[in-house]
Amino acid sequence: xxxxxxxxxxxxxxxxxxxxxxxxxxxxxxxxxxxxxxxxxxxxxxxxxxxxxxxxxxxxxxxxxxxxxxxxxxxxxxxxxxxxxxxxxxxxxxxxxxxxxxxxxxxxxxxxxxxxxxxxxxxxxxxxxxxxxxxxxxxxxxxxxxxxxxxxxxxxxxxxxxxxxxxxxxxxxxxxxxxxxxxxxxxxxxxxxxxxxxxxx
Length: 201
Description:
Blueprint: H1 3-26, H2 31-45, H3 50-70, H4 75-90, H5 95-115, H6 120-141, H7 144-148, H8 157-193
Helix pairs in contact: 1-2, 2-3, 2-4, 2-8, 3-4, 4-5, 4-6, 4-8, 5-6
């Protein structure tokens, strides 16, 4: 993905985050808005360092959980939570700790499929989640975590940059499907948010 589109995405989701925050100040009971806020934070977390990224993901999780309290069967919120826990797991080097996040992610993906069985994206996420722990093991075996944490600075600058580049590419590959999918849902969500809400049932 080129730098320009990355920058555009960053601007778009930063704007989305601010909009959601302003909307929340006016109406904290809006589950759609909380879901969009969580989605925007998830997107923005991809542009941060690992510790900041984790903080932002936690923040996203709390917004999404708040949305679920308002609407427990909201499938897009359940699905975003699955992605948030998956992202968090990949940033966690410890196998057992990561597995907890993966398990949570699978549960949320399963719930989103249960709520909206015809949704291919949710089904695909559930399939990918099943393979995620294996992928996590591979990546952390290759020392991805040290690279991402910026350790290993004793190596010469040349190898350090190429290794660092490799690990960030790897991070991008893993997050690729997550980002793309969350991005699509967020875009759709924002498009919808300009439409007047349906009358309450």
